[in-house]
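Replying to the earlier thread about multi-chain prediction with a worked example.

Input:
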Amino acid sequence: MKPAFSIILFTTVAGAAQGLACVLAVASLAGFAPQQASSIAMMLWVATAMLLVSLVASFFHLGHPMRAWRAALMWRTSWMSREVIVLPAFIAITAGWAVAASLGVLDAGWAQLLPWAAIVGALLLWLCTGMIYACLRFVQEWAHPLTVINYVMLGLSSGLVTATALGALAGEAAFASHAGAGAIIITALAWFTRGLSLRRNARLKPKSTTQSATGIQAARMVQKSMGMTGGSFNTREFFHGASQRVYRNAKRIFLMLAFAVPLSILAVGCLTGAPAAGLLAFPLQLLGLVAERWFFFAQARHPQNIYYQMVS
Amino acid sequence: MSQAEVQETLAKQLALVIDLNVCVGCHACVTSCKEWNTSGAAGPLADLNAYDEQPTGTFFNRVQTFEADSFPNTQTIHFPKSCLHCEDPPCVPVCPTGASYKRKSDGIVLVDYDKCIGCKYCSWACPYGAREFDEERKVMTKCTLCVDRIYDESLAPHDRKPACVKACPTGARLFGDVKDPDSDVSKAIRERGGYQLMPEWETQPSNHYLPRKITTSACGSSQDEFRLGDFLRTKSVPSATAEEGTR
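Result:
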């Protein structure tokens, strides 16, 4: 599949914001939230801003952005429709929580519900985003629960790294060191679950063949012409178009930058008691996650490609 | 998966049946499809860089060419491909706006261009690559089975068929209701082993393909491997003396 930059930006930035909101929610419920209400407010506003950036990015994927409101209609059958409903709802929850933190009313009874709402909203959004890909049964690389699990794990990992960085910026040493320790554990787990999907994809055998696509059961079936010379939507949308070198390097880069590098930086920060390490890990991991999402698309082999192999 | 909605069987399902025995790969169906559908009320189909290096445009129908088996048994197969109007179309439930739909009255899978937001998700959900995004109109487009032709009462009854069917010089494309057991298409599927593409995904395509039958030579019973040398030895060659005499 062709990686669309709008979707890469949307899913990586929104994922980190969802993770950040989850970290703040769990920290609030577990009693190690940032000590200053202003720090909580700042982090929630950052999460809200990230979500708005991702919302804008998602519009760039549409041919007719002005009709986007229609996309909420088919929630009974379409995971994309469900995502279109959950995303603004989650933005509203995060922004509402940010307002409550800014006004200093987090101790009010109703405000106690906000962390729970944020956790539910973030999980639902990950489920919708992951299922958009996992429900396409013939894109075999995606059609597995690991797709959803990895959206959750990578989002939580980047959210924890973001929380560590923001905690260090706000001078919340205790919160930042808690978040840093969590980031190390979850990033290692995310490395493991993403590794599982890489291993699964490497062993996949495509169900569709040129024989099943044409119904001609010959031992040798070769396409000689795909019916046009200059390319079409089918040759652009479903092929990543990058060289094998770029493809291999994208995988190496994401394994390094999304997992190995931030883990090492955070471990050093944890051992030396310097959560400011998160400030270095955050931008590097974000780059790694962009590469990860690029690879996620590039690795998916769509069965329609069987019909588009040969220009003549 | 939530996509697997309760399927109701439609009483009528219009579809194409394509005879791979007689398709000669002339692309007449491709050009007539383009001509009809670019001239309709829905607006023209994109044609970008039509006379430049990378011409590209929207087509609802393509003819592809495959080579089967190895020499000397090689076969060249011309293979027309358009939307298969699946009975369980995976492209329809994923559409977030409802712009993609399957008509209950005749089973044609259509796109409401006024509701499409151009997210391209339906094209990801089609294993056949039947849908093409129109780069000028910014909406998803696909074969309509010439829905603006087949019911047009201002046309003579024998002309109420998709443009590709009318254009085919060899009659390789049959059109009709595959749910009517007495229709030409149902008979062809039944009697000539009509099959569906990529049955592994259980989309139940309505379009069927009629398999090629290898024609054996009526001239000789020998089915040995063809050798040019042996063949030439069977031919009478003008005698050397006669050849010399003409010089």
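Chain A has a mean pLDDT of 96.

Feel free to reuse this layout for your own posts.
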